[in-house]
Amino acid sequence: MSLKEENRLTERLIRGDSGAFREFVETYKRKVYGLAYELTKDHADAEDVSQVAFMKVHKSLGTFQKDASLNSWLYRIVVNAAIDHIRKRPFFPADKTSALPGRFADDGIRPVMDRSGDPQREAESALMQKKIESALDQISEREKTVFLLRHYHDLNLKEIAVALGISLGSVKSYLFRSIKKIQKELGVSQTPFEPGG
Amino acid sequence: MGECRKMKGLFLASLYGELDMDRKESLKRHLAGCRECSEEYEKMAQTLMTMSKKAAPDPGQQFWDGYWDKLELRMKKDGLFETLEAKTQKSPRVRFGFFPRWAYGAAGAVAILAVGILIGRLFFSRPVVLSRPASTGTPSILPASSAEDLALRTSRYFERSKVILLALVNFDPGKKDVDGLHLPRQREVSNELVKEASALKGDLKKAKQRQLEKLVGDLEVILMQIANLKSEVDLPTVEIIKAGVERRDLLFKISLSEMRQTDKKSRGQGPHARKSGPIAPTASII
Predict the structure, then answer these.
(1) Do B108 and B99 meet the contact criterion of CB atoms below 8 Å apart?
(2) What is the torsion angle, in degrees rounded to the nearest 10, for the CA atoms of residue A39, residue A41, residue A44 and residue A45?
(3) Is B43–A33 a contact, with Cβ atoms under 8 angstroms apart?
(4) pLDDT digits (tens, 9 = 90+) for B217-269
(5) Which residues pair with B57 in a beta bridge?
(6) What does B182-246 look like in DSSP terms, one character per residue?
(7) pLDDT tens profile A12-68
(8) pLDDT per residue over A138-168, tens digit each?
(9) Which chain B residues contact residue A5 at CB under 8 A?
(10) Backbone phi and psi for residue A12, each to the nearest 5 degrees, phi listed first
(11) Which of A121, A150, A178 has the highest number of chain B CBs within 10 A, making it the mutation to test binding with B?
(12) Would you call B199 an interface residue with chain A, using a CB distance cutoff of 8 Å?
């Protein structure tokens, strides 16, 4: 969605256009679910978190500042909803085997990957997914959230700072650290450095 | 060393395209002359490229199709689904907070003028005779000319939407050239139709044509998805939109609406019938 379209939708949401909220959900449901899934690693949890996030958006529309970024605001709500959800769930959940990376079949979720029909390419693609998941598992939750928001959800560094309520320097630091750790995990050699912010 | 440290601080912004032209140029110059930084930058870029291959989790089309219904149900259960209009009325700051003080004065003057005109019309002019639809006998809230105009607008809206939907539904990437979609034109028309939808829905609502209003609303969602398609044809999204068209039976509903109009004409009610009332019988089919 372009910035112009986002602004138009924001205005309609604030104005109280009855169709705007549904349009908003249809536009953002995949992104919201995607982030919730990455953070919870469970389909049922991700669905619940995404619904809770949209409900919070609906409840808080009256407090939304017109000049604020809809993206940052929405992602802040999703991240907070996911954190709340993770805090509430049992530490050793009996039925959370689907929460383990690579166990997509258990909850019916399959990553959209190579479906070319070429077994070798499909196997390579599956291996690559496993490697990427494993690399993401090596970084802290904070680093991972920053990385996911920047790399897969296209929020710029300032928007991430607003969404997570942290400084721009911290965002840069978390992102740099996460990339270095991922780099190491993927087998690319590392040089010691960290930006000042 | 200090220069390297300073330049490494720009790596992230550069890799994610957030660097302004000046700093981009100075980083480019530095990388051209510093092998260590250049290698470091390359490795980071390579890492990010690998991570871009990560597949998005996909619970399947069925999940996406039913997403809104489940959310709506949950919101209703939680008592959250009051209308957004009611919500914003509760929060006057939202509605009025964005305007300067003089705007309230101007709005007040306009309101007084409007009340004056209304009183004038009520007490000093002939009453407006409202038309009735020929077939249903239900009182219409629109004058005949507005009803005719609304019927024509709705019919034209469906006709234009149908052309767009047919092109998309009949599109087969295996048989036809991707350019066969003429996407730029379809996006442009879809955009126009999306813009028109709000006003049309409002008028249909006033005319109590709820089912037609809903059909326009459903079309609006699909047309918006088409308008948002990227310039390169995004085949997975095209498939999703096609599934949406089929699931909502949009083409079937439009055809029924057209058949009903034709039927009315053949029974001699044609344009005259349309002049005498809104298109309520069509709505009852849909």
Answers:
(1) no
(2) -30
(3) no
(4) 888 888 888 888 775 556 777 777 877 887 777 888 887 777 776 666 665 55
(5) A111
(6) -HHHHHHHHHHHHHHHHHHHHHHHHTT-HHHHHHHHHHHHHHHHHHTS-SS--HHHHHHHHHHHH
(7) 888 877 788 999 999 999 999 999 998 888 899 999 999 999 999 988 887 777 777
(8) 899 899 999 999 998 888 898 899 888 899 9
(9) 228
(10) -65, -40
(11) A150
(12) no
Measure in Å the smallest separation between the Cα of B235 and chain A Cα atoms: 14
C-alpha dist (Å) from residue B198 to A61, B204, B219:
20, 10, 11
DSSP β-bridge partners for residue B58: A110
Cα separation of A22 and A28, whole Å?
Answer: 10
Q: Hey, what are A2's tokens?
A: 């372009």
Distance CA A174, CA A123 (A): 32
The ipTM value here is 0.76
DSSP B215-227: HHHHHHHHHHHHH
Predicted model pTM: 0.51
Burial A151-168 (b: 16+ CB within 10 A, else e): bbbebbbebbbbbbeeee
**B16 neighbors B44 (Cβ within 8 angstroms):** no
Contact B44, A179 (CB under 8 A): yes
d(CA A38, CA A133): 10
Which of A72-76, A187-191, B21-25, B170-174 is predicted least confidently?
A187-191
DSSP, collapsed to helix, strand or coil, labels residue A111 as: strand
> Does B49 lie at the interface with A, CB-CB under 8 angstroms?
no
CB under 8 Å, gap of 24 or more: what pairs does A125-131 form?
A125/B53, A125/B55, A128/B50, A128/B53, A129/B53, A129/B54, A129/B55, A130/A101, A130/A102, A131/A185, A131/A186
Per residue in A93-137, pLDDT (tens digit) is 444 444 433 333 344 445 555 556 677 777 888 888 888 989 998
CB A168 within 8 A of CB A161: yes
